[in-house]
Amino acid sequence: MDLITPDLGLVFWTGLTFIILMFILTKFIWKPIMAAVNKREDNIQDALDMAKKTKAEMEKLQTQNANLLKEARIERDDMIKEAKETSDRMIDSAKGKAKEEADKIVENARVSIEAEKNAAVAELKNQVASISLEIAEKILREELSSDEKQKQLADRFAKDINLN
């Protein structure tokens, strides 16, 4: 039972050792430990604040990036729209010029055809006149081959002249 019940001297010396140890700990060790713990707590709090600040900045940057991306897409769409409008205008202009050229070519062809037609009609008239003269000459030669036929023709012309 001596082990379970402590002796009064042991309790005294143990208590005195404890009090001295507490005095030494509070005087020399407790303050540096608490200062280190407080410093570490401050460092952790600063790191947490910095993390929150960084997170807020990242969110702000992400928002800015999203806005920039949206603006870039809008600008790209505007550029594509403008390029399409420009190409449409160029195509319409080219079509208009091509139509004008085609109309000009058709008109030139029409004028050329008309001129060739008139030339062909004039040549045909000349040929018909030439053939008619040749036929008339042949008929007259045949008609006037004898003297009596020549005299009858002269009389007929003379009667026509008197009537006019």
Automatic annotation (TrEMBL):
Q: Which GO molecular function annotations are given, in alphabetical order? A: proton-transporting ATP synthase activity, rotational mechanism; proton-transporting ATPase activity, rotational mechanism
Q: Which residues form a coiled coil?
A: 44-89
Signal sequence residues? none
Q: Which UniProt keywords apply?
A: ATP synthesis, Cell membrane, CF(0), Coiled coil, Hydrogen ion transport, Ion transport, Membrane, Transmembrane, Transmembrane helix, Transport
Q: Name one GO cellular component term.
A: plasma membrane
Q: What is its main location?
A: membrane
Q: How is the protein disposed in the membrane?
A: Single-pass membrane protein
What do we know about how this protein assembles, alone or with others?
F-type ATPases have 2 components, F(1) - the catalytic core - and F(0) - the membrane proton channel. F(1) has five subunits: alpha(3), beta(3), gamma(1), delta(1), epsilon(1). F(0) has three main subunits: a(1), b(2) and c(10-14). The alpha and beta chains form an alternating ring which encloses part of the gamma chain. F(1) is attached to F(0) by a central stalk formed by the gamma and epsilon chains, while a peripheral stalk is formed by the delta and b chains.
The protein in question is named ATP synthase subunit b
- State the encoding gene: atpF
